[in-house]
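anyone seen this seq b4? input:
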Amino acid sequence: MNKKPKNYFDEKGEVVEDVFITETSQIQRHSTPGPTANRSNPNRIKKHYGSEFLPSENSPSNPSMDMGQEKEKQIIVALKKTPKDNTTVEGKINIISQIDGPREVLCCKYNEEFDYLAAGYSDGIIRVFQSGTGEQIFTLTDMDVKDNRAPVTCIQHRPVSKIYPITNCFTGTYANGCVKCWSYHFNQCLYTIKEKRQTFGITYHPRFPKFVTYGDDLKVYFYDEESKTQERVLMASEDPEKHDGHMSRVFAACFHPRNNYELITGGWDDVVQFWDLRQPYAIRHLSGVHVCGEGLDVNAKGTEVLTCGFQNTDYLQLWDYGSGKRISCLEPDIYNSKLYCGKYVTKDFIVTGGTDPNILRIVDLQTTTTAASINFLPGAVYAIDVGPVKKKDKEKEKETVRVKSDISSVPKIAFVSTKKLYQVDFY
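predicted toks r here
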């Protein structure tokens, strides 16, 4: 068995327990994994059989007489079933690739070197494409996935740093509670953590080999990846008068970029919680944000919080990290879209995605207006990932005064909508 490593965060001497994991070396289970929670059946996957093309029970007995009419009916039905593509592009943005998948795609993630783009589908399979050509290269699945079908809810990888080398791994979470780390070059699952809940996402620590997962049981699990142990469970206290933990499903988490101990989380209870891993419960909170996806981010300086809410008003807001006070509410230019996701892409721009209507939007923080957008997509934008940072032009580097935000500096962005995986670039 692996020995428990030094815990960077157990200054209070808190007792932690092992989690149920499976590895290629068949590590044994020593204790019951995590708390239990009632959950709905994650195996409900829609199947489209295309019954409109099957022979009807009342088909004519003389096929030669009505063959043309029957074929014409099938074509009409097919046209009615095919959704119209009313997608429009506004601003200095180009759709550089569009990959159609076999099932609805729910999440996406570039690898460490940005040459591959992984997408998680509702059939439980992670498909990895070459980002430059769109060619499918790897299919990440095993018997565990095939025997327990559940949608992939999130894909991440350990952040690149000088301390830890590139691992060429993706870690995915699944609606049946599995957390699986894949070595995509070898199509091999390195380890599996089985949580007794629906798991909606995973967020890595920016510097240490740690991560948190979150789901439908109101709790946030804090893991050490090297030992595969669960070090903390972040949850509310038993005092009903204190808002020091979540009271509903948790859909997002983000570590502070400069503080090793702090993170924020959000979910269906309309509250964003601020956690310090040295404290037993959440230390403060802000209210009025209904989070339904990866809709939280902290800017690079660690001074501001971006919230993207699935709500009719105040859906895109900036907050002061230290005080929790709202700085501004970024109003829509034309369309008011309920947001699933959003993040900072540079110090001057943020990107958001949502539905009703289905829009990907780039917002200029200097002018607080939409710099570019893709409108009326075929479905909701559930997830976004940011590509490699663009190299600065030497002439622009010499400029000492910044006059206007330059959208051409925004990196390539990947996002998902229905069965489509998109990549866009800016000019």
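DSSP finds three helices and 31 strands in the chain. The two ends are 53 Å apart (CA to CA). kinda curious what u guys think
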